[in-house]
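Structural prep section.
Before we set up the soaks we want a predicted structure of the protein with zinc ion in place, mainly to decide which crystallisation condition to try first. Input record follows.
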Amino acid sequence: MTALGLLGAALVGCGTGAADTPAPKAKATVAESASPRASAAAPGPKPARVPAAPPTMAPGPGGLTPVYTRRAKGTEKVVALTFDADMTADQGPRAARGEHFDNPELIATLRRLKVDATVFMTGRWAEEYPDQARSIGGDPRFEIANHSYSHYAFASPCYGLPTVAGPDMASDVQRAFDAFRDAGAVNVVPYFRFPGGCYDDAALRALAPAGVTAVQWDVVSGDAFAKDADAVAEQVLDGVKPGSLVVMHCTRSAAPVTERAIRRIVPELRARGYRFVKVSELMSAR
Ligand SMILES: [Zn+2]
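Run finished without errors. Recording the tokens verbatim:
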């Protein structure tokens, strides 16, 4: 398969994989960090407010990494838009030749429309666009989640992607967290999306040391390589129900109409009474 074909397959995998894997019946747990208190005996600047730790799910049977797909409880009209910022470990030369794996206009539109969102970023993307990673990860409207460092497959076959060996999986995820830190991103959450959405029990077991909650989706936007923004918007609008989690992309080169689709999706869902939340808020309801 050519490099271009490989990219295509990988991105299609991101957006069209089956999302029917039920989440383990693990109870969502919320670990809240205590806010530091100023000591009365130690006058000085007030300590910064420490936000509550993002909720995670308890490990599944046998310590397997838990998998979250959507909010299954309640009828509150909330929806989480998620954007995969894909760049594969071997795509540096293409970026150097001018290919755009980022989508700053999309991020600007989300800000202008005041839409909270979660960006699943590869470590390689953060290395290529550190200023954007820092900006996204410093904006309370957004949170950065982990989409691996390499964007290689964690289960095989997976749309022709090269495969990460089991013993290297946890370190590939950690390398992405390191890249976010090196870029200066602050709002980083311990959620992980498998490249291509491909996983199996062996991958869930291998990732256990990373301590992440895997996040899939229940609504496929179909934005990868789409040319018709209205078709993408309609697919999302048809699929969203209370508690949905939508997968889209934040990369101009392979998802060129996403920003236009968002300009239609957001007002229409708001007209239906929906509120946009990050995955951490979606997951917080028990
Ligand atoms: Zn991806």
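Observations: Residues 235 and 268 are 13 Å apart (CA to CA).
Flagged for discussion at group meeting.
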